[in-house]
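Deviations from the work plan: none for this task. Representative record:
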Amino acid sequence: MSENTNFLLNIRKHFGNFTLDIDCKLQEKVTTILGASGSGKTTLLNCISGTLSPDEGKIVFGNQTYFDSESKINVPPDKRHLGYIFQEGYLFPHLTVEKNIRYGQSRLQRKNRNSISQVVEILEISQLLERYPNQLSGGQRQRVAIARALAMEPQLLLMDEPLASLDGGLKSRIIPYLHHIKNEFEIPIIYVTHAINEAMALADEAFLIDDGKITASGEPNQILASPSALPIAHLTGVENIYSLPVASSDQQRGITELEIGKQHLVIPYIDVEIGKSVPVAIRAEDIIISLEPDLPISARNILAGIVDEVDDQTMLSILVEGQRFSVKITHEARQQLEISKGKNVYCVIKANAINLLWQDS
Amino acid sequence: MRITSAEVAALLLSVKVSLFSLVVMLPPGLLVGWLLAKREFRGKSILNTLVMLPLVLPPVVSGYLLLLLLGKNGPIGQLLSNVFNIEVIFTPFAVVIAISVISFPLLVQGIIAGMASVPTELENAARTLGASPLKVFFTITFPLAHRGVIGGIILGFSKSLGEFGATIMVAGNIPGKTQTVALAIFEAVHLGQDISAFRLVLISTVLAFISIWITERITISNNRIY
């Protein structure tokens, strides 16, 4: 967002035991709000869109006040001109794809209506215009939903987990479309998700939301390094997430080395300038514990660390250069290696088990 | 045996008053159905009870209450007679009022069922796309609720065609004026004109069968695209 269109959110909304209590200012073009399900993300978007009214607070976008409990302002959703893309799409089942896309255009004066050809082209749905929503696949449906929101020429796009209902392969096929939208439309975006990788792929700034409150905010890179990001990382099934600077990169050898304190973490080659931090993820079950550093094995990483915590189950917490590694080993392995708090161990990790969470495009 | 002119008159009257009642009651039916299906407000359960009451009251009781309201000494009857010089009781108009009150719950029930089946999220999506509440109603809620609405219309209409108890209380049984099919059957049986009664019974049964069948077809049809 440019300087004069920043977005002020000050919202309190109670539902039984749950309280949404948000006070923040969004300033960038793409803001990601990251949180587990039930953390209040959708409630927040509904308050912004006007389909739900906060109990009290203020919602101000640029110079337009959408909601102000003190001066009793509550602009109805149809007058806010915000494009809302829902997790389930919510296409109108009785209208063709084309009529769905044109639905939001009737608010525009006839002479000001752009043709829908641009959105249709970018989202590659020109073949689908005559179809009905139930004749579309999940990915097509979501692309149409995105097109419908764009065609109304909104001043802001709200995206509520637009990829959550799609499976992995489809997700990665929709993400490029989102990049297109970010680059080709001058519309700020608020993107809500619980999936770190898809959110960070777009974000200029990020907010973590937990139990109705914002627990961290900042650049996506910084956010993930903050301890409050951990619960979300666990949710997505990745226990270890780090933001580490690139130490060296060698295309011929096919590896890039990241700095982790005085040690190095070797990952498959990426084209990133030296010194820049990249976010990487390692699953707890992809780490092997060894008592010896010199092992004749193919794994590229053997990092020295100290056992910091041993839980009753199968998880170990190991400190490597101050970074915490969660490691999953069997009870039997733990007994054989006589793992206990304070023991010096080595974390063995294949370079290919280290996933880059996202890469700036 | 040919159908008699009195029987034809009864049939025509039934169809006419039922159609007229439908046209008059559909707009309030849609409004009340929408309120009950989609809105939360104080007194909602009271409105619901009032609308549904004629469904469980004996029609004769509803008719009697109408008679009290519309009769010469009733509040509405007095008003109509003093201000407009109109007598409602024992006129075709009384038939319309009687069948409207009795069939309204069925009409509204169908409309409620149809509208409740339209997800609120779709309506909210339409609102965010710039549609006013009225536009949402006409472009989203109503088209998606059309099966329930048609079901309500057909059931209400069929009920109107066959209404007896309330009609006879407020409109009497005047051949050619207020005598509907149901009343004509009653009279025929009463006078021992079994063949005439049988013809009318047959026609009524066929009509009722057709309406229920159409309703079923509409509610279960999957041949539409959505």
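Chain B touches chain A at residues 119, 121-122, 124-132, 139-140, 143-144, 225-226 (CB under 8 Å).
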